[in-house]
Request: fold
Amino acid sequence: MLNYSATLDLIFHALADPSRRMIVERLSHGPASVRELARPLAMSLPAVIQHLQVLEASGLVRSEKVGRVRTCRIEPVVLKTAEQWITERRTSWEHHLDRLGDYLTEHPDETS
Reply:
């Protein structure tokens, strides 16, 4: 569980920044070069590269250099890890809220 937690920490840290989320959103449509990823962002190319390094360190993005072009792609398995964690939390809360709803239905006089 400790390793799972460390992985989640890196993923959520990487996704905490709006620019990195924009990069992930773009890559969810397919691979792109660093220059393509930088185009819509209001920052320098070195700043984009720093964001990509954070995304790569989290495992969310993988890049490959061919010649002078570095192409990035999303790692769906890593996104699935975050999705699974969120789903587990949502399921737990839905269960608690269902139990609360049942209790309130069974004890309507106690809610006043």
Q: What stands out?
A: The domain at 2-111 is CATH 1.10.10.10 (Arc Repressor Mutant, subunit A).
